[in-house]
Amino acid sequence: MKKSIVNGLICASVLLTTSTSVMADIQGQALSSTAYKMVLIEDVPGVTALQAGNVEEGLTATLSASKYTVDDYSRNVNLCAGYIQMSDMEKAEKACSAAVKSARTQVAIPSMSVRAYAYNNRGVMKLLNNDNLGALEDFKRAAKADSSSIYKHNLERLEAALNTAQSGVL
């Protein structure tokens, strides 16, 4: 199971492909390295369309894939990211939570690093829903499960934003 990284600010809507990672572009302005990052599972139907910015096409392909083609965990990780990109937060919450539940309960999920994907993406979704503390908890779980720079980046970025807000500096 390969992963792809989605760099995206909250409410990102357009995706541009750059090798194996995906970067969001908001209103024509390239994002800096401070954007929150999301993960896609690369071997899931629809991932190429999601990476290319064809979010509706990617979601349709992911949803229509047979259960024999893709497991529920991988499907939900990618649906979570896709629905976030479309700002469909109700569906994003369901997909993100289903991915986390699968990551915790399925024997087929081989490693803690794979579990980090689900926690990370759900953290971004929680930020969109103004649940900063819930996002912080998910980013901490992702960073604890896998020491990848992706999860550390999101955790450190949110902690810095929360510390700045507490000190009254905007």
TrEMBL record:
Signal peptide (residue range): 1-24
Keywords of the record: Signal
Superkingdom of origin: Bacteria
Name of this protein: Tetratricopeptide repeat protein
